[in-house]
Structure formats: C-alpha cells, structure tokens
Amino acid sequence: MGERSCSYLTLGANSSSFHPSTAYAASTPSSVASDHVLVVPRDTAEGLLCPGPTFTATHMAFLHYAESNMSEYMALQGKVQPMIDTAVEHAHTAPYLLDQLLALSALHLSTQDVAQASSFRHQATELQTRALGLFNQAKSHISENTYMPTFIFASLLGIHVLHETLQQRQDTLSEFIDDFVKYLRLHRGVRAIIANYWQRIMQSDLKPLMYIAVLSEQTDPQTPGEETKQLRQFLESSSTSSTATEACLSALSRIQWVLDITKQEPSRLDVGTHAVMAWPLVIPDDYIEALHQHRPEALVVLAFYAATLHQYRQYWLVLSGKML
C-alpha cells in the first residue's frame, strides 16, 4: 500500500461502524465527538495545511494499536479516545500531535515484539523527529484552537523521551545525568507553552484522566509523610545554605508530595505511575541547574527520586532502567 497524504486520514474511534449517514465532527478544543460520530481533520487557514506529513499503512496500524492499547501503556483509567480524536481532528492544525501519538504507539510496540523491536523503535524515532520539527514551526502560534493538542503532545512527548532516557545505555552516571537534564528541559519547555491554558484544560473532557491534579488538591501539604525527613534534615543542616540547597529542598519536598499522593490510592498502579512522572514538572528550575552542575546535594535528591521511580519498574516506561 502506498503512502497517502494527510487529507485522507479519516479513521475514527471505530471505522467499522461508519455508515453513510454518520455525521462529521467539528468539536471545540474542550469537547469530543460522541462514539457514533466520525472525527475528521479540520481545515483552517490557521493550520499547517497539506502538503505536509504523509501516513503509510504501517502508521495506520500504529493508530489502531493506540486505539486498542493506549489506556494500558499510558497507565490511565478512563477513556483515552478523546486524545486520539483530538489528534485526528487536528491532523492539519497541529500535526505534531498525531505524529507523536503514532511515535509513542510504535515505541510501546517495540517493547512488546522482540522480532520487530528494532524496526518499531526506528519508526518511533522518525515519527518523533518529524513531530518535533512540526512543533518547532508552530510553537510561536499556539492559540485557542491548538492549546489542547499541544498539551496532549507535551504529555506524550514527555513519556517518550523519559523512556528513552531511562533505557538508553550511558557509560557513566555523568552521561545519564546530562541526558536526564536534557529530558527535563525539553518536557518542561514544551509544557510551559500552554501554561496560560491550564485552568481551561482542567475543565475539558480530559479532566477524568487528570486525577493526579485532583489527588494533589486532596493531599494536605501541612502534614507530609516522613519518608524524606532524614535527607531533609541533612540538607537543612548544611553550613553553607545557598540557592541550590533551597532548590534541592524544594525538589525533595516534591518527592514527598509524590509519595503522599500514592498513599491515597495504594492499590492503584496508575496513580503511583503518574505521580512519579509528574515530579519532573513540579521541581524548580534552580534544581535542574544544580543537577546540571552535578552538585552533590542535587545528586542525592536525584538518587531518592530514582529509588521512588524504581518502585514502578513493572511499568514499561521504567522497566529495568539502566541507571536506576
């Protein structure tokens, strides 16, 4: 099967149920078509119109795999179809999202199919590279119409790059730290672009999937747990308090925040997984700079985070991370 341009991408939630009388979706960024409506790309002068990304039969297989397995490999309870619908709907206006969605699907497949692992990983890298290129073209023009796909893109990209950072073979701890800092800056940089839209995102149809934010509101910051108490006391006893030390204490308090959230739903792997993946987004910039400088206090906090992350090694993103 040859390649088809993006104008032919009309797969919905369940293409087998399509009938000639089916309506076409034209939803707002915060709404999603019903299960019986076919979602198709928007055409708008604001978008990056075709000619643009092309999609092959293999890409369509990745899309089908995402529809069937995304809730599992994203560790989400609830319907993930809104994310897929948003990617398809914005295939013209925010094509980087569809590419990244397919890239993550291919990446997960590479961990499931040993025989084709190399091929799937290669295609995941190609799709991610294309997605980043398209995003870099569009990032200065994020608007009312594209903040939602950009938010989803940032989430999928973060998972993808974190997995690569944890799984790739670095020869030294120093190399791993440098790669981890690059991941932090990339994920946070993309996420920061849609910061002004956060409250609207929280009121969108994606809210049921964002239970970490809800659980965070239920976590009492005045009575944190004591798992990090000993390290906190050690850092606080430093005779040379500095901006870096304060940043490390803040990053450590966010590890305690992660642990406290997981205690609310100890039997739910998805809660712990998403809480530990949220840590890179809530630490201060000064901590990342301290980590970049390989300051000892920053390294010991990172070691504590690695131990926390290691508790979720059964999740495919973590697995047996080489440097954990």
Please give a structural write-up.
This protein has 324 residues and is mainly α. It folds into two domains: 168 residues, no CATH class; 101 residues, no CATH class. 58% of the residues lie in helices and 1% in strands. It has 13 helices and two strands; from the N terminus they run ββααααααααααααα. The protein has a two-stranded antiparallel ribbon with strand order 1-2. Helix 3 runs antiparallel to helix 4, helix 9 packs antiparallel against helix 10 and helix 12 crosses helix 13. InterPro entries: Sterol_Uptake_Regulator. It comes from Colletotrichum tofieldiae. GO terms for molecular function: DNA-binding transcription activator activity, RNA polymerase II-specific. This is Sterol uptake control protein 2 (Upc2 protein).
Key structural traits:
324 residues, mainly alpha, 2 domains, 13 helices, 2 strands, disordered N terminus, Sterol uptake control protein 2 (Upc2 protein), Sterol_Uptake_Regulator, DNA-binding transcription activator activity, RNA polymerase II-specific
Summarize the structure.
The protein is an all-alpha fold and 324 residues long. The chain is 58% helix and 1% strand.
Strand content: under 5%
Q: Largest sheet, if any? A: 2 strands, antiparallel
User: Can you count the helices?
Assistant: 13
What class do helices, strands and sheet pairing give?
mainly alpha
Q: State the assembly state of the protein chains.
A: single chain
Average pLDDT works out at 84
Count of structural domains: 2
Strand count: 2
N- and C-termini, Cα separation: 42 Å
* SSE topology string: EEHHHHHHHHHHHHH
Spatial ordering of strands, largest sheet: 1-2
Organism: Colletotrichum tofieldiae
InterPro entries: Sterol_Uptake_Regulator
Protein name: Sterol uptake control protein 2 (Upc2 protein)
GO molecular function, one term: DNA-binding transcription activator activity, RNA polymerase II-specific
